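Hey, weird one. I pasted the Phosphopantetheine-binding protein sequence into the form twice and got a warning about non-standard characters only the second time. First submission, copied straight from the form history:
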Amino acid sequence: MNTPALVKDILIDVLQLSSDETFDEDTPLLGAIPEFDSMAVVSVITAIEDTFGIEVDDDEISADVFETFGSLCTFVESKV
């Protein structure tokens, strides 16, 4: 399973970004992408849960998880 590729696809889909958008480990997310607001966070979490077959508890969601693309991928991998 290629977690970064799947997470990238989710972000592009949910945030309606260009499909040629590039993400690396240090790409900032929350606060750096205008489309990434609180409603988008909920949609991204839901898509991650559906895609990876995991459950994310409310108390696991923090700004740190969504700080960078790398931190989000690390979080997802820790749940799989």
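That's the output from the first submission. The warning seems to come from a hidden character in my clipboard, not from the data itself. The longest helix spans residues 38-52.
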